[in-house]
Fold these 4 entries.
Entry 1:
Amino acid sequence: MPEELEKRLQSKDILRGLLEGTLDGETIRQIQRGVKDEDRFEKVLEIEQERVPWAERILVPLQEHLYVVKKGDEIIVKCFCGYEYGDYRHNWKLDALVYERDPSDGEIYVGQRGCDPEWMILREFYCPGCGAQLDVEAVVPGEPFIFNQLPDIEGFYAKRPSLQKKVLGGSIEKR
Amino acid sequence: MGKLKDRLIEREKNIAAGKYPELAVQKEGLIDWEILCSRLSSLVQNAREMARRISASPVVREMGECVFALFTPEGEAIAFSTGLFLHVPNKGATIKWMVRNDYEEKVGINEGDIFFNNDPYIAGTHAPDQISIAPIFYQGEIVGWAGGLNHVPEVGAIEPGGTTILAQTRYDEGLFMPCIKIGENHKLKFDLEQLVERSIRPSVWWLLDNRARAAGLRIIEDGVKELIDEYGIDKYMKAIYEYIEDTRRAAIRRVQSVLFPGKYHAVNYLDIPLKDLPVRHPLNCIVRIPVETTILPEGELTFDFEGSSPAGAFPFNATLPATNGNIINQLIQMLFYDTKYNHGTSQCYKLLVPPSVINPPSLVYPTGMWITGVLASGCVVECVSRAYYQMGYREEVCAGPPTLPFMHVGGRDPHGRPVSISLFQSGYCGMPASAVFDGLDVAYAAYNPQVDFADAEMWEKIMPLLYLGRRVHCDSGGFGKYRGGNALEELFMVDEVVDKFDGSIGISSCTVSAKAFVHHGIMGGYPGACSYRTYIRNSNLKELIDQRMPLPHGEGDDSTNPDWVKLGVSGEIHTVAAHIPETQFKKYELFHMMNSAVGGYGDPIDRDPRLVKRDTELELSTLRSAEKVNCVAIDPETLEIDYDKTRELREKRREDRKKSGILAREYLDKQREKIIRGELPPLAKQCLNDCFKGSDRFLQSFVEFWQLPKDFRKIS
């Protein structure tokens, strides 16, 4: 891939388009095929920090709508809308709204396309702040909430001291 | 102890101690080193392409279900062709098994030998995946092995087509030949061909594929000898281990640089509704496959499957080689897509798999439809996706892969010849949604991403069915901000009466995700739709044809009022969310088949309305789902978007969710009571209780999560 094209594909403007869903398919495929930029995390962090309407420092974007942020001495999960879920080491789902859907209710799936509720249910997790649907678990009744991800923030930043200084201005205390 | 066994033990000891080769030959001359590697890759690729042209099977010839490789003397892959990536660790396992079981002394390993294996407990996934291996000698010393594998569509199981949903033991699954010497002096043995000829239904696929693989092995063998002549034996024997080591290092660097360290969890399930089938032990159950993925900052990856359901009397178990193969298959596609294809990628992760449905504790468990292995890899995909998301590489985030429904046909082809085959195009499912675009429709076979769809006309030449239609099944992909790829639907008319007594009769179908969602969404996306089958007996299709009336080509966009009903097809219409055992059909009867649709990504009401409009224009999605699921208002006449109404619908949906959702703590309290009183559906109880028996850790986490009494042991 020509160096100029590679640089362009790795620019913040293009990455912003990737995050916001404004890129065309061919550009996305070129990004997929290209060399992975080593500073992607830093650039995406900057883009996300510019997008969110609140001031807390993002430590890592967790998933759609959700971020792990530094709030005072705490590290918490926070929604784009501002709703706060508490310590990131606890499953944010415990502070969300839950709707247990009968998959044969005809709302999402029609006819035979929904599963048999005697076999499986859908658990939809909504943000109490904005009503975004953050996760859908397709599980047997009785399955504990799935704790999808617990990022190792200390381990990650310990390997990147200059980034840690830039993002936090210091170290994260061992928790 | 033979020489090969010494080498294998030494090699494994060194790897366990972290003693890996230095890249001395690479340092001497990188360009030459890379050129040799490239020539080895070309050799195995050449073998694959040539073998495809010899095979009679459309599965290999048209679709490319075939892979070749070169191995070290110890059985580690040096170079792999494209094709079935899930066999990267598998074929080498055949060699290791032979070496560990003293084949050098007990059977003899000589120049010109060809060994065969289709025992999935040794290597491979099921009886149809057939491996041929040949040792490569240079001046009397073994310098490596050539290997070839392809899927053979008939193996003599209790139903035609290579895999059977009725299998409840291994002994129902056809002819197994574990590490048998099928050739000497580069010639296939006549007596073993007789064994195959007389043990299975049409043997042409198996026997000709044997020859195709033998030819491919010869290409690799001769090519390696020429390269050794050119490069010298010392340089060659050092370089082949360096390719593996270089890949191992590259794989670890890749994990360190693109995946955010942490712990990740995912859980998949498989529905197994066999109670109404003519099986010896009727059962319904649901099996659970959880994973805890640990990614360390140093790049170490561990996949721990503790808490998985036990193996059972159904063909959906996956052997450990099959489970590992599925995982490496997905890792190659997601992470290691631009490293060299060799054993090095298998050396960068640890797999912890207890005796379970994805590592059966004894040979008796059938594994013909190793879907649980795919689901194990689906859990891994979800974890890796989340780690990618956190690092910012959104273009690599996706929902889990599709599993493989099958349709098998036995009978007579249009020329009156007996036929028994699995219709492999049913493996081409929707591609999972990613974080940046929709999954491609009908575009992806998880186990073999390179494969090509065979022409309908090719299939019609070899089976007693005619296509009335082959289409994208609209609205089947999981809804989301980006939707999962839609499934394939096919409508067949039975062309000839199948012969009752020749052992090859009827149509059977494995219907994955009939009762439970198997293809989950991610980060707010919905699972792909469940699957079902429709067949119409004693139909009036002949009359409609004679009257030149329009015929249905598929279900249409309303599954509650399908096109065959709208167009006046009558008869006994059966729509079942179930597996179909081998069933005879008559001419002019119809069979409707769909394969797997996969999960969506993100909240469906975050979907760009222009994508919703495009889908309705292309009949990939309906106006109903546009409004009800994506909350996009589209004028049914003009198909134009009403953006104001869309904003209102979405705002209302958010408010409705806040009203209908209850606080998680309240939900937990209610569920706890149900669990204590045993008020869960019987299948859920059975599933969870079975998992408790196999894992104290899961039981403990279950008790802690639901805050149950400390002496809780099972759901009553």
Note: Chain B touches chain A through 95 residues (CB under 8 Å).
Entry 2:
Amino acid sequence: MSQSWETLVAVALLGTDRQKALPAIAEKSVKTLLVQVDASDAEHWLLSAAGTLAAYQQAGQNAEKRTERLIESAEAEAPTLEEPAFLPFLRMIFTQDFQPALPEFLSLLHQSGQCIPPEYLPQLLDWGHFHPEVRSHLRPVIGSRGEWLARLNPKWRYAQATPQSSNPEEWKELWETSDRTVRINLLREWRSQNPEAARELVATTWKQDSAKDRAAFLECFAVGLTLADEGFLEKGLGDRSKDVKTKVIEILSQLPESRLSQQIGMRLKALVSLNEVKGKQKLEIQLPDLDDPQWQEYGLDASRLKQNMQGNRGALLLQLVRLAPLSLWTDFGSPQTLLELVSKNEWKEELTQGWLFAAQHQQNLDWSVALLDWAIATLLNPLGRWMQPLNPFRQLFSDLPQAIQNQWITNLLKPEFWKGDLVEILISNTYVLPLSLSHTVLATAQQYLIDSSEQGQIRAVAKKLQYLSNILHPDVVSKSSAGSFQTVYHALQTDDFSRLWQFLVLLQQMRQVILQDVEPQN
Amino acid sequence: MSSPWTTEKVLALSPDASSSKSGQQLANANKWGVLGHNAIALWGECQGSGKLPYRTQIDLTEPAFRCSCPSRKFPCKHGLGLFLIFAGQSDALTQGNPPDWVQEWLDKRSQTSQKKQEAKADKPVDPVAQAKRIAQREAKVTAGLADLDLFLRDVVRQGLATVQSQPYSYWDRAAARLVDGQAPVLAKRIRAMASIPHSGQGWADRLLTELGKLHLLVQGYQRRDTLPEQVQAELRSQIGWPLKQDELLSLAEQADSAVEVCSDRWQVLGRRVTEEDDLQVQRVWLQGQASGRSALLLNFAHRSQVLESLAVPGTLWNGTLVFYPALYPLRAAIKHREASDRTWMQPTAEYASIGEAIAHYGAAMAQNPWLDIFPMLLTEIIPYWEGKTCCLADGAGARLSLDPGFKQEWTLMALSGGHPVQIFGEWNGSTLMPLSLGVLGRWIPMEALP
């Protein structure tokens, strides 16, 4: 912008009523033109000068010079003239809101050795940003272009490639030079390869790392966790940061043999007794004493525990049950017996919540199955009132080995299964059910619909089936298998069912088309 | 049978994102009863909410669409769905002779263009009535512009700082008087001005520029009798009173020296549909392969009406265009065109650098100070980020910023990968709105990209 233009704007801002003196125009050719304009008509002159000078400047503008560095370019892509066969599926997933099929789609792409075309990367990387559960499927198929793109957008950092190195001697440099996200990925990777070396590496920078980083690194210790980590972890009990301390306790509690777990277990066990009251067994709990200085030693700050409905002491009890080894309870009965025993206990909440947490963190199969059975029994009981969130149970279920999951579903599958919220427990299941079990799922749905005469149920069941659709075996829709689903579907052609049908067809076709050129590996 | 149409190319025809979505939902052979095709047409029957199925047909030579559904979108979702099936799974369509309802339409279409010509010749023009209509509009425009003149003066008399606190009604009243004055384009510009005082840094510069240019327009129009014919034509189109298309074409018939006629092999570079109040505006940019000329096809439709597709980005066809008289003629009408070749090849480079493109814009501005949109085909351009703004850089170290309304920056980045690409877009004097992208031999309209 020229000086003359700036003076013109200054006059215009004030207005010709207040600013009588008209500015001089330095640009010669514009000045020559303006000589023809009557300067005693101030508004006319100002507007004419502005219009002329603006056009003059626009016509005379030069390209601006770039001041910032260009980004390093990505690996060049080969020209693709044919549209890849998988692309219609990707479009369908996004245009028809079939995103639950994404993990399956992405892993098929990976199996067939293909990558996402560049133009779809932003959409998928964004999806991964909001849906962490697809990230592990996404990473292998974004290709070098995707990794390049992920470096440019902080939201997509998660997709950055983790430098690969199986040689611990090269780790040190990577560890010291990488940024936070990469370090976390590296650590998780290294913990699975060589937990000892990984731990030693963390120790070398521990003092310089921020509390936020330290807490994040501790989380990675869950991978490859053994008693050998105990010494390092115990040092963290004295950490300045409360978050780090909490993480240390959580990780140590995943080691039931650790000193901390054992100590907490002993203290807790001393508070529990099994007594006979009016001819019935009762689990009696003595509440922990808040003032005991030892809680502090265990990293439990009793005075600052979040107060629950049962007060501070109840909250401390919950903490102890969460952290103590589950083995301490064997003296009082099996998981099933105990869950039954506490159904009317005044500390039922603390105990069941604590067990749930412990079963998950200690990966205790007996307790996991017992807790799931207990949840189902309560949910299916018409008189039982369910107050707990289903999320932890969902997690518990998806952590079970596939065979146990299938066994459990087989036992559970009855028409009543379709009543209530039960099905939500199965949502995050990562395994696809065997074909026969998938048929059974549909058959029970059909039976339930026949049994319940309510019209409104069709919709509800269709919705639930939709939740489950990505764990159903894709061949349930194949024409050759006279699946019960077809019967259900044809009998109840509602929008929900037709969507579900489409979704299952999508899954099935995806497999056929994407894997058609892949050599079967034996 | 393989079709030269791919999903991407079909989606480029879609009028908007929601149509693309519904079209893809209908791209499922199970939703169609009848599905058929021959060399020049596709047809299908799709069960909608009504009792009778909708009958959808596509004339592949254009392509042109017709559907019995009540949708005002063009093409409608059924048209897109049918076309997508053809593009993706052409086996689902049975080859054969078209049913009567398709044949009738095809016959009618081949006759229509002939009839149009005849009808035009037959239409009697009453010169007296026409002169009277023109005089009436002339009077209204003169009065409207006199009002505008007063308004502009009033703004600078009060000062822009004072005007900044004026409510929207201040601008709207002035615009309404221009609507009465039958100068619709000016009315639109005044309404657009209302938002400038709240557009952040540099608002006063932008507002004063617009006020000054409008003032020159009013001044010019009031003295138009003393100005050359082309300036008069420019002024008329600037206020929203351009020649009608048939007037233009009949001037071309009479070989009037005011209109330019240009035959060439035209490549469709890009398309943009915008909505202004209740009006849909479609701009299609062409480039002549032999002449190197840029041309703009423009059409409008009320929001509730069908906006006819003018040409498909990426296609090439031989044709004759007639340019509207103007100071820097860009807008044109089609006098004659042959069927499209669907090649989707990258166009020939127009400017070697950003500097050269901006210099051309400067030259065009020097011819037409009211030029608002300028087509730019840039080659060997690398998109990159400057903070939160997506920019383009050329090999010579020059840069330009993309329009803040452009939302596909990441798609652009992903496709380029830091390598040079070709971009066609609309330059408004300070930012570029990309409309099409050339990368690795593909020419892709931005609207076909996610």
Note: Chain B has a mean pLDDT of 86.
Entry 3:
Amino acid sequence: MTVQVQLVLQALLRDPAKEMYGLELSEETGLQPGTAYPILLRLEHEGWVTSRWEDVNPRAEKRPARRYYRLTAGGAVQASAALAGARRPKGAALRRLAQGDGAA
Amino acid sequence: MMPAIDPRYDARKKRARVAMFITAGATVASSALDGTRLSGWQWAPWVLGLCLIIAFCAISMNSGGGLRTRRGMSGMSGMSGLSGRGWGAGDRPDGRMAHRWHGLVMVSRMMPGPAGRRWLAEAESVLWEIPAARRATAVRSYLLSGPRLAAVMWAHEGLRWARPGPRHPR
């Protein structure tokens, strides 16, 4: 499991019931949104994450609808187990990611 | 809800399609009739010219109006268009940003239809809210990850079709 996937899972696991949208996840993990999206998509294909479009009127909100992501019940269990088994990313790696988004 | 449609868009799209049909037809016909006379590298200018014309037509379909008139964008309900009317007065992208936005549209078209629409809609949603100082970097990250994602999505699409049994709904 890559460091980026671990960061995304950690962010989602902080409150598994909470839905997070792309920008929120990006800020939480320090990853660029373009990097986080493929990870979320992969997790969704695996059934770990579920997503939905926000049900708002974009004109009233004056912004486009957000896509919200949330861990599924099974996904939360699997993510916890996977993170426990994964090698913890070193502080330097996390700082590098936060500064320059190593994968972007 | 249907997004608002720029009335000029349909005409422009129609013109671009007609131009592409004419070009493709003319190329096929000329190749069939004169193909045998082309020797060595003489076909190269034809191919290059065709590519340029197709690129020009594709760009003309993208120009003006922004994403508000693009395919899908069902989640946006007419609010979309980072390079169009959706921007606030002080938020309008400069030339380079608009160019990169067109790049995002092109990358989304490399992906299977629904997946490309979703990717683009989500990119727009994020880029809309991201602070202006970070927007260019975010667009770049989408542009860099897009082609690889397109390859993965096509692989998924291929596997989905190759798998026996009933198709999964999209």
Note: The longest helix of chain B spans residues 132-162.
Entry 4:
Amino acid sequence: MNIDPVSGKLPVRNADPAAGSAGKVSGSRDVGSGQMEDFSSMLGGAIADVAQQLRKAEAVSIAGIKGTASTQDVVEQVMQAEQVLQASIAVRDKVVAAYLEISRMQI
Amino acid sequence: MNDLAVFRIGYDRAKWLAARVAVVSANVANADTPGYRAKDISPFGSVLNDARIQMTRSQASHLAPDQTIEARYGVSPRAGAIEKHSGNSVSLETEMAVLGETKSQQSSVTAILGAFHRMLLSSTRG
Amino acid sequence: MADDLKIAVASSVSSLRAQSTRMRVLSENLANATSTASTDGEDPYRRKIVSFKTELDRATGASLVRIQSISRDSSPFPLQHDPGHPAADKNGNVKMPNVNSLIELADMRESSRSYEASLQVVKQAREMISELVDLLRAK
């Protein structure tokens, strides 16, 4: 992540639901390409993405249990939910660690 | 994060599947009993919002006489069962097919329950 | 939910026992299909019949199958003309056991199939119980 040294902001990540790898959060938040957003709104957005994916996974799982959704759909959504959750937990842990480190610094 | 809905319906489904296995087992056991008719339990969709399902959720582990599978889900003759001259209508092939399907459905349900359970655990871990 | 799976196992185990007994009796009939008497006036082997009944176990709610009775087939002994036989009557006829091997074999096949099916139910029900318990182990 390249933090702009002047404004302290981050470049916008473009939504890529097909990526699926750790560190990338799916979901779209169209801020406009080329614009910068700050860390807190990125974090807030990431959390909203996870909640949305979890709700989606839950809904399709309930449908799967009732027999109205296919196994593939359930597997796809649940795996995605696990992935984004894992990523957000990793971010959370790093934020907490960074906060603790900062709070220990002598100013 | 409120996952309780998926757990509740998952458990309902698992209980229904177990009851179905018990009925299939009774059918197979009585495949050669004269006059015995093959049975099945009510479809899951029809019992989903049934008042009786509410009972299964708070059920004690021992069964009172009126807590039979019949009382909890409703049991009726298996559709399409053909009666032999002995009066018995059990087809082992049908019962084995139902058993196989029930088992695979349970695998799916336990996998879903396991996944959400793990997600819940990992997100609440310190 | 595990209770119903245990009920399933109980039903099928009762079936295994009942079918085993039945197969034993069928084997006995087959083995004695030509067991005549040794003298005139005595009866040859009389076919045995096994009948099943369904029993509801009040404690668990399981539907169990039991042997209702092992009785003797009262149908008449067929006659075979064999004047030299020690059990031949004054007409030279010998009473043969009222066992039809073809029927006994057909019943044996049916019993064997039911036995195998019940075995499958026991196996799969136990696997399902195991799967549920494994949820507690999932990390």
Note: The two ends of chain A are 26 Å apart (CA to CA).
